[in-house]
Amino acid sequence: SAPTVVVAIDGPAGSGKSSVSKQAALKLGYAYLDTGAAYRALAWMLLDRGLDAENPAVVIESLAEFDFTIGTEPEGYFVKVGPDVVTVAIREPWVTSEVRLVARLPEVRAHLTEMFRSIIRNTSKPGIVVEGRDITTVVAPDATARILLTASEEARMGRRSAELVDQSAAVVGEQLRSRDRADSRVVDFMNAADGVTTVDSTELDFDQTVSAVVEVVHLASLRVFHGQHPQR
Ligand code: CDP
Ligand code: CDP
Secondary structure of 152-215 in the HEC alphabet? Predict the structure, then answer.
């Protein structure tokens, strides 16, 4: 059978990665993988079990019992840790603020990266859209299409505040900036790596952003079809 088309999408918080990737996957008939959900789910597990997420040894040890399941149908998204459905819980602020403690550890990143590659290998769809911070550079550097989804800080803050009715824009803004700063120390997702196409959504609405992403995928697939190495 034809090899799976892999679409790698990275970008900062609020750039539209999750919503745009999901919709692009739906349009293309591809699977969808939210890698941030795995980092969030691991942080959730540590908090749920009362384990010390500040202690690297404790976090690394917990990987052995990290039983993570994720729905990769763009319309059937769910996240489980063991038997617990944590789809909503992993978005809670008390989880979000702890994710950096697990994401900073190379052992955690290596473990989750292997998990993601196995999910990509086992997809039954003709393609998969994989979204996160290090997909274009570490998880799938040889992806068919590699995209950095950006938007001005103002636009990203605005979109996030619109989602959270019970928090002030200032608080949301500061949390987002502080998370981006911490994340940037671990992986560079603010600058496009060689061969990565930047899609700036600042002036685009949601549908226009999805179309821009789908267009990059079509162009990249054509390039592969004509036997050229994808963008490198
Ligand atoms: O959707 P949002 O931008 O808020 O974040 P997310 O994609 O759910 O990711 C949550 C956190 O997981 C990020 O702030 C990163 O610390 C971490 N992450 C990562 O380190 N590498 C990835 N490939 C994806 C997420
Ligand atoms: O996953 P990430 O944090 O990058 O962003 P998201 O949660 O997918 O998107 C944040 C919000 O921005 C969502 O409510 C999207 O519908 C919205 N959005 C938008 O208003 N305009 C765009 N061009 C892209 C996303």
Answer: CHHHHHHHHHHHCCCCCHHHHHHHHHHHHHHHHHHCCCCCCCCCCEEEECCCCCHHHHHHHHHH
